């Protein structure tokens, strides 16, 4: 059915929650934050709000890199160098975290049958480090990172970049796979391509969202190609 498959990375192929938790622990230890576990939820809320602002076009991904720690430090009363914290955290995000079980096998199987692309909202040094460490970059014929191209999902311009790198595939045989209804699914639908919502936890579908497909396991993608 599809000869071109575009993937999201975070929370779709990659366990970003684990990566974030370990990067936070590394950063908190480096800067002497008392009782870091008590403040992890604060960091998560600040970070999610900022990435939501990125999706709305209110912030650039590079802004999030340090602004989240400016707000975090002010909230928890930590007197630490924001840029040094940001650098430590970015290193931790690249160094920690794993693919979801079976993700590499699915990519290997799909790469022999379709052209694969990756479109990710994130920081280039984080995402490139992850892809290199995990050894999956070669599966993709196109890798587009929002901070490197100056535009984020769900805006159509980021899909333009991927389509140009892929040689302008037929939209009718292209599908966007991701976990985010507001970023991946809305972005793909707005660009005129099919969408596949990765929903392993069985979340309810938002009333205004209508993905073409919905899967609970990445292996289900094999039946779409």
Concise overview:
With 225 residues, this protein is α/β, with parallel strands linked by helices. Helices cover 47% and strands 12% of the residues.
Task: Outline the structure in words.
This protein has 225 residues and is an alpha/beta fold. It has 9 helices and 6 strands; from the N terminus they run βαααααβαβααβαββ. It has a 6-stranded parallel β-sheet, with helices on both faces. Helix 1 packs across helix 4, helix 2 runs antiparallel to helix 3 and helix 4 runs parallel beside helix 6. The radius of gyration is 18 Å and the shape is globular. The model has no long low-confidence stretch (mean pLDDT 95).
Outline the fold blueprint.
Blueprint: E1 4-7, H1 16-30, H2 40-55, H3 61-76, H4 82-95, H5 103-111, E2 115-120, H6 124-134, E3 142-145, H7 146-149, H8 156-165, E4 174-178, H9 181-190, E5 194-198, E6 213-215
Parallel strand pairs: 1-2, 1-4, 2-3, 4-5, 5-6
Helix pairs in contact: 1-4, 2-3, 3-4, 4-6
Percentage of β-strand residues: 5-15%
Q: Specify the biggest β-sheet.
A: 6 strands, parallel
Sequence of secondary-structure elements: EHHHHHEHEHHEHEE
What is the CA-CA span between the terminal residues? 5 Å
SSE class: alpha/beta
């Amino acid at each position: 059915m599809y000869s071109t498959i575009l993937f999201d990375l975070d929370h779709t192929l990659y366990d970003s929650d684990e990566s974030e938790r370990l990067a936070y622990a590394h950063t908190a230890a480096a800067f002497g934050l008392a009782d870091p576990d008590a403040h992890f939820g604060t960091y998560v809320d600040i970070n999610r709000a900022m990435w939501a602002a990125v999706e709305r076009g209110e912030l650039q991904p590079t802004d999030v890199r340090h602004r989240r720690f400016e707000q975090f430090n002010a909230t928890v009363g930590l007197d630490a160098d924001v840029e040094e914290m940001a650098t430590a955290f970015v290193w931790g995000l690249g160094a920690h975290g794993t693919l979801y079980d079976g993700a590499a096998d699915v990519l290997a199987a799909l790469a022999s049958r379709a052209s694969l692309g990756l479109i990710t909202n994130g920081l280039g040094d984080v995402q490139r480090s992850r892809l290199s460490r995990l050894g999956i970059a070669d599966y993709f014929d196109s890798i587009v990172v929002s901070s490197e191209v100056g535009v984020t999902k769900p805006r159509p311009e980021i899909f333009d970049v991927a389509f140009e790198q892929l040689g302008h595939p037929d939209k009718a045989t292209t599908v966007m796979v991701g976990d985010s209804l507001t970023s991946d699914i809305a972005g793909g639908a707005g660009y005129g391509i099919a969408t596949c919502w990765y929903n392993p936890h069985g979340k309810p579908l938002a009333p205004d969202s209508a993905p073409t497909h919905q899967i609970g396991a990445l292996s289900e993608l094999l039946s779409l190609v």
